[in-house]
Amino acid sequence: MASTSLTPRKVALRELASARPAVRAALNGDAAAPTPTSQYFGVNTFGARQMRDKLPKKVYQKLQASVRLGKKLDGEIAPAVAQAIKEWAISRGVTHFTHWFQPQTGLTAEKHDAFLSFDDENQPIESFGAAQLIQSEPDASSFPSGGLRATWEARGYTAWNPASPVFIVEGPGTRTLCIPSVFVGYNGEALDEMTPLLRSSDVLSAKAIALLELLGDTGIQRVITTLGAEQEYFLVDRAQFALRPDLVMAGRTLLGAAPPRGQQLEDHYFGGIPERIQACIAEVEHELYKLGVPIVTRHNEVAPCQFEMAPRFTEADLATDHNQLVMAVLRKVALRHGLQAILHEKPFAGINGSGKHCNWSLSIAADNPELDGFNLLKPGKTPHQNVRFLLFLAAALQAVHKHAGLLRAGIGTAGNEHRLGANEAPPAIISAFMGQTLNRMIEDMVSGKTAGQKAEQQLIQLGVAKLPEIEKDNTDRNRTSPFAFTGNKFEFRAVGSSQSIAFPVMLLNAAAAEAIADLTEKLRDELTRTPAVDDAVLNVVRESFKASSAVRFEGNGYSDEWVQQAEGRGLLNLRRTPEALEQLMTEQAKQLFRSTAILTEVELESRYHVRVERYVKDMLIELHTLGQLVDTFVLPAGYAYLNALAKGAADAKAAGIQTVPQLAAAERVGAVVAELDAARATLLAVTEKADHQHGDPSACARLLTSEGADAMAAVRAASDALELLVPDDQWPLPKYREMLFPV
To answer: Lower CB density within 10 Å: C or N end of the chain?
Structure first.
């Protein structure tokens, strides 16, 4: 019964067996003497070095001040900046420019315009002025807006964010100048991911400065939100990817039997990077270095064919731009190597999915050299520095405790739903891990062991007067925590690998800004009774730590015991995306954004509607794709095998053989095919029901996350059982063992 034809799957396997690393001669200079990264880093970016070389000194100083302080570009210097950018870009072979922005699609958008223009004598020239640098006008009705713009209201504007330098994207025979921008509607409505993030950074800075000034710290210009986003991803053979309609359409496998070997041998994590993969990653890094993206880490992740790269931290808005470039370059370069980069949170069942750990902290920009660059979440060397550290630590915990539901909403996507709460990733319950040293210190403060003493005496007794470098030795790591303190920052581990980090970080900034403002008012009140600032701070911090104690958890976030304990603590357990997204519409969320003015109520509601609609669209794509897979791949393979078994049984009976093994096999296969056909009918009914409810996205989302998810699971179970029965050469789709363990 073996097939004699060479199926597409077999062709893909043959090509994979002969695949070799793609060697690009111009990757990094002469292979015998590669160019040091520092010599070409940022070559395609109009960064500080290029600004200093190309701009008049006063113009450069004003531009740098604008970048440092997060302010709008001074209109007086815009023409000079535009002229310098144009000359630099043209010298690099650029012919077009675009405002590069981040609509609420999770991706980036761009519309290219040529430098080509004509003078008064109709002669061709290259033209690019201040107006083109600062602003452009894309169609606002063609992007997700959640009701902020109607289809007949098309006007929208993009505006350059000078804190993120312009850069050049290279393609075959072309180079394009990209101007990182925000995207707003005709009335100033935030239509993108970047505008709210920038607003949140400004609000957080203002609130933090007010608190620091109350502590007696002066000369502070800005408090900067710093961020470093670790990117996890899969790399699989492109030919096999193309033969999987589910991967092409949905970004994940909707069916596929687990192979005997997965990640149980624990041999992939930090293992040697395969040669073909190494060649691809090296080129990705090379392209990113030219764009000024400071990637400093690469390694194998836990699951087979899973990898990670991580950058050096930078300001949150720039880190967001950098992460979008990381994802785009990964996708583009992988294709050159015959590979496909998969960023979906759960592309393969039964093995680890991918996240994007966001390392978040706060740093001071000041004209006071003792404060400039100081990390507010890093323990200091003096009692006063550590009083400051405890205050901002308390604010972070208070923010996470009060707005855990909102933070869960920020990571709620159809893809992340398959990852959160699984035995591999942070659970859907938002909690914070502090580590043994800090947690013990906080508990001692809450219990009042040192109450009544002077601040310095308390700190000495608590062991906080001079905290050692916590990130080195004094705290363990907790991979099960969604929000873990790692010595000088918090690691927001629950963010999904395919997400834009702008939205979840904006929510974190907003929650932190509110908490800082609250502690500022409480400290101001406490100072009326306790004149010594450090003593007053410890009194305020003690109460804050006590109030937020429920969110601190040091144990195993994967355990069933934690689910029960969290419920007793009053913590939310929002397993499904629709119920998580509803947290955006609570009165508490609305009050947060009213008080911070980061989003209007209409803008906040639009975020809810955009994300619910996206969830519905993603799920409907999966349902329709799975139905087509079953109808055109899986069931035909099952029917063909049944026919072959029946023919074999008939031939045996005609030959006088009484006991026919094919009959028993046919019964087993027939039972599974019947089960699959019944599950397929249920899937079709749910799909039709969801299609009819599409006009009510919230109701449709609830249907899809319950009946839809259950119907897909039933189809998958039957299909995977059938895959294990049908002969290998008759199965039409690339299997897990082939995609995850390439020869």
So the answer is: C
Residue 154 pLDDT = 67
Residue 255, both tokens: 């069916």
Residue 310: Cβ within 10 Å count = 20
The model's confidence at residue 658, banded by pLDDT at 50, 70 and 90, is low
Q: Among 530, 533, 495, 537, which residue's Cα sits nearest to residue 516?
A: 537
Mean pLDDT of 157-186: 93
Question: Which spans in 468-600 are helix H?
Answer: 502-526, 533-547, 560-569, 577-581, 587-596
Alpha helices in 347-498 (DSSP H): 383-402, 404-410, 436-446, 455-462
Residue 360 lies in a domain: no
**The total number of structural domains that make up the chain:** 4
Residue 424 belongs to what domain range?
A: 204-227+375-599
Pairing of strands 174-185, 96-100: parallel
pLDDT for residue 2 is more than 50? no
Statement to judge: residues 100 and 244 lie in one domain: no
* pLDDT, tens only, 11-54: 877 777 777 676 554 455 445 567 899 999 999 999 888 888 88
**Look-up of token digits 């794709």:** 625
- Across residues 563-567, what is the average pLDDT? 93
For strands 231-237 and 306-311, give the pairing. antiparallel
* pLDDT tens string 46-62: 988 888 888 888 898 88
CA distance 184 to 198: 13
For residue 606, being part of any structural domain is answered with no
Domain C-terminal end among 295, 321, 342 = 342
Together in a domain, 173 and 242: no
Residues 6 or more apart whose CB falls under 8 angstroms from that of 225 comprise 200, 201, 204, 205, 315, 316, 360, 361, 362, 505, 509
Residues 6+ apart with CB under 8 A from 163: 66, 67, 70, 315, 317, 318
Q: Does residue 706 lie within any of the structural domains?
A: yes
Q: Looking at residue 282, what is its pLDDT?
A: 96
Maximum separation of any 2 CA atoms in the chain, in Å: 104
**If you average pLDDT over every residue of the chain, what do you get?**
89
664 or 227, which is more confident? 227
Q: Are residues 499 and 585 in the same domain?
A: yes
3-state secondary structure of 139: strand
